[in-house]
Amino acid sequence: MATNRLAEQVALVTGASRGIGAVIAQRLAKEGAKVAINYQASKEAALQVVRGIVDAGGEAVVLPGDVSKEKDAETLVKSVIEQWGRIDILVNNAGITRDRLLLRMTVEDWDRVLEVNLRGAFLCTKYVMPHLIRRRQGRVVNISSVVGIGGNPGQANYAASKAGLIGFTKSVAREVASRNITVNALAPGFIDTGGMVDQMTEEAKKTVLGRIPMERFGNADDVAEAVSFLCGKGAGYITGQVITIDGGMVG
Ligand SMILES: NC(=O)c1ccc[n+]([C@@H]2O[C@H](COP(=O)([O-])OP(=O)(O)OC[C@H]3O[C@@H](n4cnc5c(N)ncnc54)[C@H](O)[C@@H]3O)[C@@H](O)[C@H]2O)c1
């Protein structure tokens, strides 16, 4: 159901051409926000997300850019301001994995995951923040992971990036709290976006489900719902927090 919870608000969602980011973008648009859909490579997929939003009566644009590149992050934010004259919400969702056990992990595997997942969030936040501070309002939501809390074999680089994002969230939250800006992190568990979970064998699925007290995988709507809540007026006194969305797995 569409609401006006985020009417007049402008949001930038990174990595929103598919998966969780696309659903977050659709959700924020449904709540009345104008949404910039950032993508790195898949323009057609990003355009499809925009079409879906526009067809549903919302407003959205696509913005290309690699969040790990400073120039791209700066241009991304500039483009949102040129388009709508303001920015209120940043969702740092863009993320990648390059899974390997530590002994096989290359320096490139390590660097690239940290660059996209952590440096990318830093750069986008850095360039968005002056606009939020000027208007003394804003919301930043960082998509971390339960792996950043509990660790996971084969994901030392990813876990480090997601744990780093939590430290980043808590620090920036303290820096900007007096300006009426909130900064929070979400830590999803196993979210079925039609990719990784679909490719698991039935046995692997069973093993994973056995570790989830709610006995089901999460879906992108579970994450989008929490983003929408954190961006709304009702969450104005919540900052520096990490909310796990994992069916009770990590607790
Ligand atoms: N799916 C899960 O189970 C799960 C669990 C916990 C956390 N997460 C996190 O949620 C976020 C979204 O995950 P997803 O499963 O939808 O992944 P996905 O691979 O489906 O989507 C990731 C998006 O990020 C974009 N992206 C990648 N590198 C980029 C870059 N350098 N610049 C800009 N965009 C870039 C991709 O193009 C894509 O649109 C990620 O940060 C991921 O770590 C996912």
UniProtKB/TrEMBL annotation:
Q: Where is the active site?
A: Y158 (proton acceptor)
- Residue sites binding NADP(+) per the record: G15, A16, S17, R18, N93, Y158, A159, A160, S161, K162, I191
Q: Which reaction does it catalyse?
A: a (3R)-hydroxyacyl-[ACP] + NADP(+) = a 3-oxoacyl-[ACP] + NADPH + H(+)
Q: Does the record bear ATP-binding in its keywords?
A: no
Note the SMART domains from the entry. Answer: PKS_KR (SM00822)
Gene3D superfamilies named in the record: NAD(P)-binding Rossmann-like Domain
PROSITE patterns in alphabetical order = ADH_SHORT
Q: What class of enzyme is it?
A: oxidoreductase
Q: Which UniProt keywords apply?
A: NADP, Oxidoreductase
Q: Which GO terms describe its biological process?
A: fatty acid biosynthetic process
Which residues does the UniProt record annotate as the domain Ketoreductase? Answer: 9-189
EC numbers on record: 1.1.1.100
Q: Which CDD domains match?
A: BKR_SDR_c (cd05333)
Asked if the Swiss-Prot or TrEMBL record annotates the protein with the keyword Oxidoreductase, the reply is: yes
GO MF annotation: an example: NAD binding
What does the sequence similarity comment in the record state about its family? Belongs to the short-chain dehydrogenases/reductases (SDR) family.
Q: What is this protein called?
A: 3-oxoacyl-[acyl-carrier-protein] reductase
Species of origin reads Geodia barretti
